[in-house]
Specification:
The chain is built from 9 helices and 14 strands. With 305 residues, it is an alpha/beta fold. It folds into 2 domains: 147 residues, Nucleotidyltransferase, domain 5, CATH 3.30.420; 117 residues, Nucleotidyltransferase, domain 5, CATH 3.30.420. Strands 3-2-1-4-7-6 form a 6-stranded mixed beta sheet, sandwiched between helices. Strands 12-11-10-13-14 form a 5-stranded mixed beta sheet. It has a 3-stranded mixed beta sheet with strand order 5-8-9, with no helix packed on it. A hairpin with a 4-residue loop joins strand 1 and strand 2. It is globular and about 65 Å long. The two termini are 22 Å apart. The relative contact order is 0.14.
Length: 305
């Protein structure tokens, strides 16, 4: 087995994914921890990192780099946002050092973009996946790219010549969860009915008047005799379909612009269906591999090599 040279962590709101990497950035070992920052008390992240994460790998003496919500006011320390446009080198120059027993430990800053209605938009963690995806192949750092990272708060990112110039967040995943638990659409049924999902995609139209379109999820059951168990799948299709239809316009990209999907394979499959239904060409890449590549690239540029 190759010797570990770096401890890399993607530390989010609900969990922590960590890897040890060798000197070439290849994965030596991977573990997950139930240590989401939303569950931690102030100051607890540093202690749990030293007491649990490092020892799990035998990585007490390794340099470490962390991204995600660990750099927010809920996490270890605030890593100030880097403003768009920015690329890999810009983020590497803004890595935030933290005090740790193991020596060199850095946190990746989040990113901030011009948002909607005069407000900013922000992300933490997705920027590292994006930069890792760009670092994996030089051709990706040329020209314009439209990248979608599905998730609780989906990110649609506009990249030009390897720099993130703007992004828009859609709270699609969170809206699905809230409506499914706390509204007239609540249901414990799994969202695995692909026929109903396709009906939801069709009902999404161009993504406008979403509040009105959402009521069709109830009306189709109480007035149309559709199965109540199909509601979560229909709702998922409706919300993802509306996002795919409407959000790219907010970035000023053409409706048929090619989209790169970057993230969890299962969730990306749903977005693939939504894009295909609109005739949009797309390609999907693994988000975890991109996160590892981004953390390693930032480490190499961040002064520890």
């Amino acid at each position: 087995m190759a010797e570990a040279a770096l401890l890399a962590c993607d530390w989010g709101t609900t969990n922590l994914r960590a890897w040890t990497l060798d000197a070439e950035g290849r994965i030596v070992e991977h573990r997950e921890f139930d240590l989401g920052v939303s569950r931690l008390a102030p100051g607890e992240a540093a202690r749990r990192f030293e007491a649990e994460v490092r020892p799990a790998f035998g990585a007490e003496g390794l340099p470490a780099i962390l991204c995600g919500m660990v750099g927010s006011n809920l996490g270890w320390t605030v890593a100030p946002y880097a403003d768009c446009p920015a690329g890999l080198n810009d983020l590497a120059r803004r890595l935030v050092a933290v005090e740790a027993h193991g020596g060199w430990v850095r946190i990746v800053p989040g990113m901030r973009s011009e948002g909607l209605a005069g407000s900013p938009d922000v992300m933490r963690g997705e920027e590292t996946q994006l930069m890792g995806w760009l670092a994996q192949h030089p051709d990706r750092r040329r020209g314009r790219q439209v990248v979608c990272h599905p998730g609780t708060h989906a990110k649609w990112m506009l990249v030009e010549d390897g720099r993130l110039v703007r992004f828009v967040t859609a709270m699609t995943g969170e809206l699905f969860a809230v409506l499914g638990k706390h509204s007239v659409l609540k249901s414990d049924a799994p969202a695995d009915d692909m026929d109903a999902f396709g009906q939801g995609l069709a009902a999404a139209g161009d993504g406008d008047a979403l509040a009105a379109r959402l009521f069709t999820a109830r009306a189709r059951v109480v007035g149309g005799g559709r199965s109540a168990e199909s509601t979560p799948s229909y709702l998922s299709g409706l919300l993802i379909g509306a996002e795919v239809a409407a959000v790219p316009r907010l970035l000023g990209v053409p409706p048929q612009a090619r989209v790169t999907l970057l993230g969890d394979a299962r969730l990306c499959e749903l977005y693939e269906r939504a894009l295909a239904a609109r005739g949009v060409t797309h390609e999907t890449f693994d988000g975890e591999a991109a996160a590892v590549a981004g953390l390693f690239a930032l480490y190499k540029l961040g002064g520890a090599s």
